[in-house]
Each structure stands twice: as C-alpha cells, then as structure tokens.
Please model this.
Amino acid sequence: MAIGDDIRSKVGLLICISCRIGRLAAQENQLQCTNCGAAFPIVRGVPRFVPDDGYARSFGFQWNVHARTQLDSFTGKPISRNRLFAVSKWPAELPGQTILEAGSGAGRFTEALTTTGATVISLDLSSAVDANFHSNGKRPNLLIAQASLLDIPVPPRSMDKVICLGVLQHTPDPAEAFLHLANCVRPGGELVLDVYAARLRSLLSWKYLLRPITKRMNRDRLYRLIERATPILFPVSDFLYRTLGRFGLRVLPIVHYPELGLSPELSLRWAILDTFDMYSPAHDHPQTIAAVGSWFKKVEFTDVTVEFGPNGIIGRGRRPASAA
Model:
C-alpha cells in the first residue's frame, strides 16, 4: 500500500527509535530516518516500529476478532466516550492540541479522541492496530502506529496530552512504562492513566486464581473454551445479578456488565471478549494507590490526582510549565 496523505502530513511528529534524534521522511511504503538511515515499514496503512506483537500477542488476537464490539459507533451508546472524559477530565474540544494514545486496542477510545479536534497519535504494541486502522484510519486528524511503550517514536516532551487506559498493568514493568509515557509530556502538558488496583477482593477473584493456568494455555484453545462456556454461564450470571446485586457477578468465572444496558447478543459478546481479556494476557500487574502516586512524584509532576475509578486506579498529573 502506498503511503497515504494522513501519514505524510503527520510524520513530522515522529522520531527515529534507532538513533532517537533523527526525524523521519515519508517514502514509498516506509518511513526512513534522515539521520541514521533506519527504515520502518508501512504495512496495511500503518507504520510498524516493532517486528511483531511480542508479549501482547493475545491482545492482537482478541481485538481483531472483536474489532468493533466496544466501539460506540457500533453499540450505539457512548460507553467509551463517557469513560474517557470521566477519567481524563478533559474538555470535549481540544483543537490545536496533540494527544498520544498509548495502547489503543481496537480503537474504542481513539474514536472518541478524534472528535476533540486534536491531532491524535495512537500506538499499540499488538496487531490490534489493524483493527483500529480499519475502523478509524480514515479520520484526517489521526495517525496509527505499531510501537512499544518502551520505545515510543515521538520526541521527548512533545505531546500536549498523553493517555493510557487499561494498558499499563499488562506491561512487564508498569513503573518503567510509566516513565516512558511521562517523558513524552511537554511542559504544561498532562498525563492520564488507569491501572488495575491491587485490592484484596480483586486478588482473590477467579482471575488471579485461574491465570497461572490460563495464561499458559494455547490462545486459540482458550478462546474456544471461553466462547463455548460463556453462553452457558451467562444466564446464570444474569440471575445471580438480579438476586444478589453486584456480588452475584463475582460468583462465576466470567465477566458480565448488565449495568451497560446492551442488547443480550452484544452483552454476550462483551462477556466473551472481556473474559478472554481477563485470562489470556502474559502480564497482569495490579498496583496500589501509593505506588501510582510515587510514579508521579518521581517525575515531579504537579496537580496530581490518584484515586479509585471504574477500572481500578486513575492517575492524573501535569508537567510543570517551567520544566526545562
């Protein structure tokens, strides 16, 4: 696929990950460093800064199977949009800003971010970028790239806003990944994240009891097992929710979100997707509020808020405008 105008117009926002100083020039089917000559292929419309999915292979699989399941444009409900703006506290209009989305998955938050009028650079380590590109790639203010959070192809301190939702706990070292994200934030810019919470009730859940087995299972076999078992357990889970409330949702080893008000068919698809998402990742490292607070303190961010949220712990902070 020849390079598109969407990539050509935004390549100036990127930097070479080999020498860390060279800018990238758009050529046929690749981006090339003007300093060291390193080349990065463009495959199916997406620049690739990594050779494969690495430890995120299960995510590439699930987001291409469920490419549209969680998109607001597909569900007809602003579920992702509401979560994005509730967590970030950002205004709905951000013209002239540049946002780095770290860990896009299939693009559920990408879709909402592009409506702000900001220029959005959306990264994921996995082949989920293909699903994101298929759904959102034609948006003129979006650049999607496959890259690692430990080797982000943007210049240091260049992004107005950096956001990372539902991802850090799935990296080998969340604290190290945080430092790489923080390094992208310009003086006066903001970083927003959420991460699973290390609470007793969570650590004693089905997920952490079964993950020592499931994370080592063959990916396709695990998905088929979940795809067969979830429709059987789903009506039972629904009954338990109606009789026991949210406690009833913890009884069975599947995920269920009756409060979202989805159709029965789509609710089941979400249950299959998130149950697989729960058991399959290579890494799952929940954090404490104290740990997340220490991350922001280490990089000397201000206006820091660390609190419990809908997906665990939310962290927000700003690099001081006077930072060199």
Summary: The chain has twelve helices and eleven strands. The chain has a mean pLDDT of 96.
